[in-house]
Every structure is written in structure tokens, then in C-alpha cells.
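Minutes, structural biology subgroup

Action item carried over from last meeting: produce the C-alpha cell record for N-acetyl-D-glucosamine kinase (Rehmannia glutinosa). EB confirmed the sequence was re-checked against the source entry. Recorded below for completeness.
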Amino acid sequence: MGSESDECSTAVILGVDGGTTSTICVCLPLLPFCEQHQLPDPLPVLGRAAAGCSNHNSVGENAARETLEQVINEALSRAGKNRSAVLAICLGVSGVNHPSDQERILNWMRNMFPGNVKIYVQNDAVAALASGTMGKPHGCVLIAGTGCIAYGFTEDGREARAAGAGPVLGDWGSGYGIASRALTAVVKAHDGRGPETMLTDCFLKSLGLASPDEIIGWTYADSSWARIAALVPLVVSCAEVGDQVADEILKNAVQELALSVKAVVQRLYLAGEDGSDSFPVVMVGGVLENNKGWDIGKEVIDSILKAYPGACTIRPKVEPAIGAALFAWNMMKEKEANGQSR
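Output recorded by EB:
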């Protein structure tokens, strides 16, 4: 029988970031739980694998399960490990919005990992939060990419979310929301319902269209939300050179994104009773990345800090899949500290 030190030297933890576009799995070695031990920088990733969508709402249960199994098996294979080496796994998967969603994925994973493997299933926003807090489930994360969501955790385990309901239900601060409003503005300017805008010529040139009338056909030719969201840089560029319509669209997006964070902070009392307590706000997603002139992320941060001066904004140094693995590691570390068996 191997010693505990032998187990620790071979054991691994898995982290999965399952999105609507792609699914990533990373394999990390079991890191020491000692409080004095600093996490290595960079973290030692033993194996990494990528596949397509694992959101069961988008591709169905069978395809989602197959994708998760694929990335897990590939990451383990590239790490030179097998399933028996896994001590814990955290899956942050988009579409996990209800306990029934969690239970479904838990059942899939129990079939893959029978025995004492610790399995944690969360929304993919939790993986993004953990990527900024190095696995600690505390604070708020704002994701603004194709879609958007704000998600928060308290140190005693309470959680809350705002937005994240998709474009039909109004994720207006998202890339899709920004670009769809810009496309609408072009159509309204063309038919006389709205002011003229530089967005018209900018979109026509970029999309290779001859007339604003063709924007309607282009928009409905492909239902991909990411295809629409990819137009955000054009909206930013028009706002940067002074287009009032584009500027107003971005200001509205900033308000929506900041409002989502504020809603989570208020529901969880992350800033304390007087709003001055310190808490992390993790900023993730292409919409929040730095722009030279019109910086959406900076404007959102300024709005958050105006309401909550103690907020500590963080742009993650590691990817969400690593955040998910560190989430599992932190949960194991807490149980160890409380005298519970791994």
C-alpha cells in the first residue's frame, strides 16, 4: 500500500470551463494545503484539452455529456494520468442554472468517477470568478463577452446572479446586446426613425454590403449570437471618433453591466451594511478588454467604485478552467482544515 506522500505526488485535480462556444479541461497536480505555502507561478498544468459546446440547452444532453467526457479523458491522457488519480473535479458549465442541472451533470460524473472523488458542479461564471480569486469562492464576477452575467459568492456560501438570461431576455450589456442595438440604429437611421450615424457606412464597408436594406438579410442569414457580437469593435471605433449614436449605445451598456454587479452586491451584502467593505470584482470577457479611446471596462469599473469604494477589481491572470481546478482545491483545503476526510 502506498503512503500518503505517494498519493499526493500522483494525485490530480481537474478543472472544466464549459461554455457555449468551447469547453476546456485542465489537469493540475495536488498542491500542498499548508497555509504558508504559496501557489506556484506559473501553475503546473499537467494536461489541457479543448472541445466544443457543453451547454445542454444548446446542443442537447447527449452531445453535452460526450463533450465533457472527451475533454476530461484527453486532459488526463496528455497528463499521463488515468481516472484513478483524480481526487477532485470542478465543472463550471454554462446552462447550469438550477439544482436539476447540477444533479444531471453530477450523475454523469459519478458514472465516470465512482468512489470518493469530490465533484463540484457550478455555473461557468463560478469558474471565471475563481480565475480571479485563485479559487476562493468569494466576491463577484462580471462576464461580458457574447453574453453577460454577474455572479456572486459570500464566504458563508450564499450566492446570487444577475443577467445571464440570454439576448431574448435582455442581456443588453453583452457583445450581442451592443451590436444588435447598433444594427437596429442603422436600420432606424435608414428608414427615418432615428438619427444619422457613422455606424451605417462602417457596417456596410466591413460586411461588404451595398445598402442598409441588405443588413436585414445579413442579420437573419445566420442565427449565431457570436456572429452579431463580433461587430462590437466597429461600434467602439465609431464612438471613439465622436459618433453620438454609438457613444450612447456604449454608455447604456456600461450602465447595464454596472447595474448587474450592483444587484449582486446588494443581494449578498458583499460591501457590508454601509457599502464600504472590501470585496473582489473579477472582470472577464472581450467587451471589458482595454480599448485606447472608449474603454468599456474602465467605465464599468469607475461606476462600481463610485458606488462601492472598497471594491477591488481584478483582471484574471489564469484561464477559467484553471480557476475551476483551484475552486476544487480550495474546497478540499477547507475540509482538511475542518478535520474532514478528503
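Discussion: The first strand starts at residue 12 and ends at 18.
Next step: EB to file the record with the rest of the batch.
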